[in-house]
């Protein structure tokens, strides 16, 4: 059965924007709305209950509504301290649009021009650019004429991210985290085997003592687990120093969830954060939220969470998913989802993996736009908190 009519709420997609250390600093919004509806769509999204609190402290990068028909005064209801508006390159060349951009800047909005705006961008109060780096990078002159920060768009490989960074861009948006450079100096496989063993213990709900023994063999994982338990998220009166205490404080269900995420917490060779961690957190949390919003019970919610968090293990471990699944004792529905994107969790995972699914895909799953947005908001809120606590 499908939904009888489309939702009046706009269809929204989010994509993380990171700094040079792979830390999330902003979210790029993809809001489906025609030129005549763009302003109302923005107002609906940013007027949604608790929206700003859920995504704080990240900036929100959105495409400005058509300034030829929009008065800057109409945007005053939007939070100027949180929004960065992307404006078209054409706005820099027209005197009337320059004036409107300058009014937005005076209202506190930060503006990014889509391309090399040059001196005209400065005349419009624009200090930053958003540049499509899929095939090339901006010129040195463009980088010198604008203060920044500058956003590199469509950085879908590590090579493109490196090129954008070398050119002087400091913000990055794309799928590069899903396409890391191949490891030219692989380890002896001990760490990978330990991770798979830990995943196996979690999958079969092993005894806490077994988990503790394996955790002690992995200093990095042990450190992150104790850091989580002692973080502000748990607000304990006295610090936790042992794994047994940590397991007791978290409880079995939360322990499993944190450990599944902590697999991604290992730092990169350059000391920066692993960009896969918040992505795995988003997928897991949104899968769980969608199942819950559709009336799924606690066991179904847990399996949905596992599906989301495990969906990036092939990238993390640089192994085929068939080998990973073969080493674990997972529910059949989770296996079907991970291997073939099939079954009830597989259908959900397919839409969760997209930056912004189309309405027909949501309609097939009996999800309206507002339900999708609610699940997205919950997922990103949790991922932001996870990233700050690890």
UniProtKB/TrEMBL annotation:
State the source organism's domain of life.
Bacteria
UniProt-listed SUPFAM superfamilies: HD-domain/PDEase-like (SSF109604)
- A Pfam family per the record: HDOD
User: Where's the HDOD domain?
Assistant: 185-381
Q: What is this protein called?
A: HDOD domain-containing protein
């Amino acid at each position: 059965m499908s939904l009888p009519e489309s939702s009046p709420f706009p269809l929204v997609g989010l994509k993380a924007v990171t700094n040079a250390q792979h830390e999330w600093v902003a979210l790029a919004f993809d809001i489906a709305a025609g030129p005549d509806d763009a302003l109302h769509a923005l107002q609906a999204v940013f007027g949604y209950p608790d929206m700003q609190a859920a995504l704080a402290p990240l900036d929100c990068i959105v495409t400005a509504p058509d300034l030829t028909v929009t008065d800057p005064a109409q945007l005053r209801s939007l939070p100027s301290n949180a929004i960065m508006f992307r404006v078209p390159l054409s706005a820099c060349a027209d005197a009337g649009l320059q004036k409107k951009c300058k009014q937005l800047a005076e209202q506190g909005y930060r503006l990014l021009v889509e391309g090399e705006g040059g001196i005209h961008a400065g005349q419009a109060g624009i200090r930053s650019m958003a540049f499509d780096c899929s095939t090339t990078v901006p010129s040195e002159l463009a980088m010198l004429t604008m203060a920044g920060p500058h956003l590199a768009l469509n950085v879908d490989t590590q090579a493109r991210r490196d090129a954008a960074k070398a050119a002087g861009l400091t913000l990055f948006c794309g799928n590069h985290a899903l396409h890391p450079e191949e490891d030219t100096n692989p380890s002896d496989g001990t760490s990978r085997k330990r991770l798979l063993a830990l995943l196996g213990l979690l999958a079969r709900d092993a005894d806490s003592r077994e988990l503790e023994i394996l955790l002690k063999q992995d200093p990095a994982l042990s450190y992150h687990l104790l850091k989580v338990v002692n973080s502000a998220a748990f607000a304990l009166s006295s610090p936790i120093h042992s794994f047994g205490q940590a397991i007791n404080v978290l409880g079995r269900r939360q322990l499993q969830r944190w450990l599944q995420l902590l697999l991604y917490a290992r730092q990169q060779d350059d000391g920066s954060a692993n960009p896969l961690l918040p992505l795995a957190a988003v997928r897991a949390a949104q899968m769980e939220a969608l199942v819950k919003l559709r009336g799924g019970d606690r066991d179904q919610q847990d399996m949905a969470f596992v599906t989301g968090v495990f969906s990036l293990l092939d990238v993390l471990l640089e192994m085929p998913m068939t080998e990973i699944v073969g080493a674990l004792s997972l529910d059949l529905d989770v296996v079907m989802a991970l291997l073939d994107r099939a079954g009830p969790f597989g259908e959900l995972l397919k839409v969760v993996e997209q930056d912004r699914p189309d309405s027909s895909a949501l309609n097939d799953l009996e999800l309206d736009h507002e339900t999708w947005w609610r699940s997205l908001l919950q997922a990103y809120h949790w991922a932001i908190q996870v990233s700050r606590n690890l």
